[in-house]
Amino acid sequence: MARNMLVTGGAGFIGSNFVHYVMEHTDDTVTVLDKFTYAGNEASLAGLPENRVRVVRGDICDGELVDQLVSDTDIVVHYAAESHNDNSLHDPKPFLDTNIIGTYTLLEAVRRHEKRIHHISTDEVYGDLELDDPERFNEHTAYNPSSPYSSTKAGSDLLVRAWVRSFGLQATISNCSNNYGPRQHVEKFIPRQITNILIGERPKLYGEGLNVRDWIHADDHSSAVLRIIDQGRLGETYLIGADGEKNNKDVLELILETMGQPTDAYEHVVDRPGHDLRYAIDPTKIRDELGWEPAYSDFTAGLEATVQWYRDNEAWWQPQKAATEAKYREQGQ
Ligand code: NAD
Ligand code: TDX
């Protein structure tokens, strides 16, 4: 039976990709609740069927609005967050407001109305790994976040767990690795480098670029979230990853190669303070228990398609580019 989902942060990168994915793969209807911060973009929801997608401009910290929307929904899928580590190092307060208070506000409404929530989180809550550590993060790894961003995400996960245990809240949690794909804000690593090349700026690599991220296509994240919503066990946490470990230097060289540039045509800039060295997800639980498999096994092909998306959609990213680079320049990055 078709459901009505309340998707918070549905105008952001991963949330909007999820809404597109839901439209293509289910009969569900969606209400997007989004504050349209600098990271939300109406254009990311363009072309979706008007009879199945409603967009509400509002803050997840607004208790009255949240209460009303939650009462009308079958399930909340909670993507809304302040999401960028670099921003959190310069101005942490919005991270506490949205990621902690916003999540708390949603949890209370879900509890009052006896609904279900799926909480979207990140592998960054586990801190980082050494490059040669044979272990990867799994559902039992201890929380050890490094940045204001990841500590507020960790805090939000712990709130969900406490609401499950104390109040029997119907909730699931997923912690996913680094996403790439269309509609990602130009502040993030891959789109920043692609769009720098497109405007004739040199890409910027933090430090030596040996830091490893575990890349997954945003559509694979969406298919995993839908699988958890459909088949996941209430109260459980699932880690989502696609065995996509790569260091930043290799990813940057691949972007340069894909875009026909010399592979050394970039600058080293000042490193991020407290920069996590390596993230890596062990996805055994979601694969074995829920039978989920990623569809994008070829990172190079996925990256090429992403480069093409930014080439084809300059009107989407151009309005954000100058301000984003001005902010980075101030920070020496
Ligand atoms: P994003 O910054 O692109 O989008 C966030 C969205 O939330 C924006 O549309 C913004 O307007 C909205 N928002 C922010 N504060 C709000 C508020 N108070 N009320 C309502 N809406 C608000 O982020 P993203 O990269 O799409 O990440 C989405 C979620 O996925 C986050 O919870 C993030 O922690 C998680 N996540 C991201 C990644 C990644 O690689 N980007 C990986 C794992 C998990
Ligand atoms: O210009 C850059 N140069 C660079 O070398 C930028 C913007 C980043 N980097 C490095 C820092 C990281 O090692 O690239 C890597 C990826 O950086 P981000 O895109 O900022 O992502 P990260 O900090 O890894 O966090 C992302 O993945 C986990 C998302 O932003 C989070 O929301 C998610 O939780």
* Percent of residues in helices: 40-55%
Q: Secondary-structure element order, as H and E?
A: EHEEHEHHEHEEHEEEHEEHEHHH
Tell me the overall shape. globular
CATH-defined architecture of the domain at 4-185 and 215-243 and 276-296: 3-Layer(aba) Sandwich
Radius of gyration: 19 Å
Summary?
By secondary structure, the chain is α/β, with parallel strands linked by helices.
Describe the protein's architecture and organization.
With about 325 residues, the protein is α/β, with parallel strands linked by helices. It has a domain at about 5-185 and about 215-245 and about 275-295: NAD(P)-binding Rossmann-like Domain (Rossmann fold), CATH 3.40.50. About 45% of the residues lie in helices and about 15% in strands. It has 11 helices and 13 strands. The protein has a 7-stranded parallel sheet, with helices on both faces. The chain has a two-stranded parallel ribbon with strand order 7-10. A two-stranded parallel sheet has the order 8-13. Strand 5 (about 115-120), helix 5 and strand 6 form a beta-alpha-beta unit. Helix 1 (about 15-25) crosses helix 7. The radius of gyration is 19 Å and the shape is globular. The mean pLDDT is about 100. The chain binds nicotinamide-adenine-dinucleotide and thymidine-5'-diphospho-beta-D-xylose. Nicotinamide-adenine-dinucleotide binds near residues 14 and 176. The site of nicotinamide-adenine-dinucleotide has 31 residues, from helix 1, strand 2, helix 4 and strand 5.
